[in-house]
Amino acid sequence: MLQFDLDSALKEIKRRKAKNVALQVPEGLKARLPEIIATIEDNADAKAFAFVQPCFGACDVKDMEAKALGADMLLHFGHSQFVEGHAIETIYVPVECKADGKAISLLAGRLAAELKKKGSKRIALCATIQFKKHLAMLEQELNGKGFEAFVGKGKGVERGQVVGCNYSSVKGVEGKVEAVAFVGDGLFHPLGLGFAVKRPVFVLDPVQKEVKEILQQRDLFLRKRIAMIEKVKQAKSIGIWVSTKRGQQRMPLAERLRKGFERQGKKVFVFVSDFVKPDYVAGVDVEAIVCTDCPRIAFDDSSLFKQPIVNQVEAMIALGEKKLGEYAFDELA
Ligand code: SF4
User: Fold this and answer.
1) DSSP 8-state code for residue 173
2) How confident is the model over 144-195, as pLDDT tens digits?
3) Does the beta carbon of 170 sit less than 6 angstroms from any atom of ligand 1?
4) Of 91, 129, 308, 309, which has the fewest CB atoms closer than 10 Å, so is most exposed?
5) Which CATH architecture has domain 101-213?
6) pLDDT per residue over 218-244, tens digit each?
7) Could you tell me the pTM of the whole model?
8) What are phi and psi of 28, to 5 degrees?
């Protein structure tokens, strides 16, 4: 169950006398858009409109577009600030999963058993922003069981927070710990952690109430990515995709990659769009795609493309600029 505090956002709207409020919400909150808009319009002297294209991170903040549409404030739900400087007043509204104390106790007990098997005492804890409260509970539980839990403060993120392209909160305390525990769902973030740090990574899923180590998935994932990188090396023509999203624009990097691939005798084309969709280049004959946008796209959307698709770190490996041992989810954002 997702929770957010609309009262605080309303106070900000009134305090700043905003009259036209733009909204960005994650997919999980879309169904509640009518309720959010009605609450704002009924309780403040303001109108509201919502951007409805998917928004997966605060790298995709639409302050400039909102301003162009006449908004004087943007409410961005579910992500913490990622880019500096905004075209209009921008408020980041936290969205959290309701913390389930019983589930965390259960998970802490299971994790403790796993750590004992490995003889590990000191552990780094992290979570996505939605599981912030669970993280605080887990820290208490583990310390109460005689472990030493470390929750690091990273660069541009909250204490213990990780995002797909930023694991700095864990990397900062890596030297003090023997293992890492991630609280959240899905495999994307823990896999990224598995490459960012050289410690065993455990996933604590409060929804499935499971604790698992990701070593096997990490190795399988890497094997698939190596195969993809090899295909890009063989390609004679490459499309390099650049995003127009504020936190994902990397034209200088695309230019650098273009020169590298051209030196290898490949034909290179640069494509620009907000979203990355195979349809956009359906008629363009390129044998491989390098996506400089969010690093997740090359993994999650690869089945949608007829060509092999890699992200920028993988492109650097294909070019010989990085070694396979340096494989990491993109941390250039
Ligand atoms: S670039 Fe991707 S991984 Fe990074 S914050 Fe944006 S959506 Fe998340």
Assistant:
1) T
2) 999 999 999 999 899 999 999 999 999 999 999 999 999 998 899 999 999 9
3) no
4) 91
5) 3-Layer(aba) Sandwich (3.40)
6) 999 999 999 999 999 999 999 999 999
7) 0.91
8) -65, -15
* CB of residue 165 inside a 6 A radius of ligand 1: yes
Overall fold of domain 222-326: Rossmann fold (3.40.50)
Residue with tokens 């050289």: 198
Cα separation values, 196 from 4, 201, 295, 331, Å: 31, 10, 14, 9
Q: Which two tokens stand for residue 12?
A: 């900000």
* Atom in ligand 1 nearest the alpha carbon of residue 56: 7
Residue nearest to atom 5 of ligand 1 (CA): 57
Distance 58 CA to ligand 1 centre (A): 7
User: Which amino acid does the sequence have at 97?
Assistant: C
CATH 3.40.50.11850 residue ranges of the chain are 101-213
CATH architecture of 2-96: 3-Layer(aba) Sandwich (3.40)
Strand partners, 251: none
Sequence length of the chain is: 333
Q: How far is the CA of 283 from the centre of ligand 1 (A)?
A: 28
Q: In 3D, which of 50, 35, 40 has the Cα closest to residue 19?
A: 40
CA–CA distance, 78 with 298 (Å, rounded to integer)? 23
SS3 string of 57-82?
Answer: CHHHCCHHHHHHCCCCEEEEECCCCC
What separation in Å is there between the alpha carbon of 38 and the centre of ligand 1? Answer: 30
SS3 assignment, position 153: strand
